[in-house]
Design brief:
By secondary structure, this protein is α/β, with parallel strands linked by helices. It has a single domain, classed as Alpha-Beta Barrel (TIM Barrel), CATH 3.20.20. The protein is built from ten helices and seven strands. Strand 5, helix 6 and strand 6 form a beta-alpha-beta unit. The chain is globular. Bound molecules: zinc ion (2 copies). The site of one zinc ion has 5 residues, from loops.
Length: 258
């Protein structure tokens, strides 16, 4: 059984830097403190126009997160992890520079991708290409309903199941964390929940390492995971496989020296 108080990190949050986030870094930090978190990853989006200026801004932002903000670490009591949320099939200049970020979840978004023109195999190929550069796969259940008319009701089509099985295999092979995203469960309009319910059980069968993510776009959501916790407890997901529950594991995986 895991409880909210076992969770010491939120590893996916957004700020105003993402444009569709509505809180500042300071507001997110204050919210994380209130939730007794020890680590807070700021994972604003890197948009598809990976232009020189965008990359420069991104690198500067992360430098501030890691150096300036954490220089008040004692006062804040929460260590801020400079990260970014990447998008599959994303063309970026200076990719190497961004690959130096500690925390680099990558997921599927429709920002500039025409998801309806892709197949599940295209997605698998993209995740496979990303696997060696990223340390986490974010919300793998999202946006799949846009791909074609597979059934996303209570009985998932075999093709969708095969997609998840393959992604899980990839994660396992490359030592990548899979994300349990609180927002995906809460915003279930497109059938996210049925898909999560499937893949989380397969992840458990394979002893996959996972992490919880609020994906907060507003500070009041930071560090709160009621639905994700309920889901994990339903299937008794072992605490040792949940990154957010273990400060030592977080420090080791993200190479954080305090
Ligand atoms: Zn996302
Ligand atoms: Zn996000």
């Amino acid at each position: 059984m895991i409880k909210q108080s076992d969770i010491i990190a939120d590893l996916h949050t957004h700020t105003i830097f993402s444009k569709h986030g509505y809180s500042t870094i300071q507001e997110n930090i204050a919210a994380a403190c209130k939730m007794n978190l020890k680590f807070l990853a700021i994972t604003d989006h890197i948009y598809n126009d990976g232009t020189e200026l965008a990359i420069k801004n991104e690198a500067t932002r992360c430098k501030y997160l890691e150096k300036e903000i954490n220089s008040n670490y004692e006062e804040n009591q929460v260590y801020v992890i400079g990260g970014a949320e990447f998008n599959i099939a994303q063309e970026l200049t200076k990719r190497e520079k961004l690959m130096k970020l500690r925390w680099r979840p990558i997921g599927l978004h429709g920002f500039k991708l025409k998801i309806s023109e892709l197949t599940l195999n295209d997605l698998i190929n993209e995740f496979e290409k990303s696997a060696r550069m990223h340390n986490a796969f974010a919300h793998i259940e999202r946006e799949l309903h846009k791909i074609d008319n597979y059934s996303h009701g209570e009985n998932l089509d075999d093709e969708i199941k095969n997609f998840f099985d393959t992604i899980i295999e990839l994660a396992k092979l490359n030592n990548i964390f899979l994300e349990v995203n609180e927002s995906s469960i809460r915003n279930n309009d497109d059938g996210n929940e049925v898909r999560i319910n499937y893949w989380i059980r397969r992840a458990l069968d394979n002893n996959c390492r996972i992490y919880l993510a609020s994906d907060a776009h507003f500070s009041s959501r930071v560090g709160k995971f009621p639905l994700a916790i309920e889901l994990l407890n339903e299937i008794d997901y072992p605490k040792e496989l949940i990154l957010n529950c273990d400060a030592e594991q977080i420090k080791e995986e993200l190479k954080i020296v305090l």
